[in-house]
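INFO batch 0412 | record 1 of 1 | parsing
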Amino acid sequence: MATDTYVGPLGYAVFALPADHPLDAVAAELSSLTAQGRAVILDVELVSRQADGTAARRRLSASPALAAVETDLLLDTDLERIASELRDGEDGLVVVYEDRTLAGLADVVSRDAGRELLLGGIDPTDLDTLQEGEDR
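INFO prediction complete | emitting tokens
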């Protein structure tokens, strides 16, 4: 988690999986990322699209490891947006996380009396625009 010397970027990812796909491998990978200190998992949710097109939050009770980090951070508008992107027969797996990749570097910098100054992210689609020579 965030410390006095470092707060990693917060992010999310949504993956489309076949409906009712077993989530054991997903749980194992998220556990590995946490154990390695590469990420703090803030929320995991499973979203489906109902026959009428509306979104439904599916409980992760079949996977106790994932259910333990299911915190319902998503708003109804988030659920609807995700559901609108799903194809028939898919569920959306949502992971909200803190990226801890640079936590060790932050510790080194803070030991040298430095501090975290700015934190941000870049939308990958913006990289294409920057590479095409658009003003930065």
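INFO post-check: The chain has five helices and four strands.
INFO record closed
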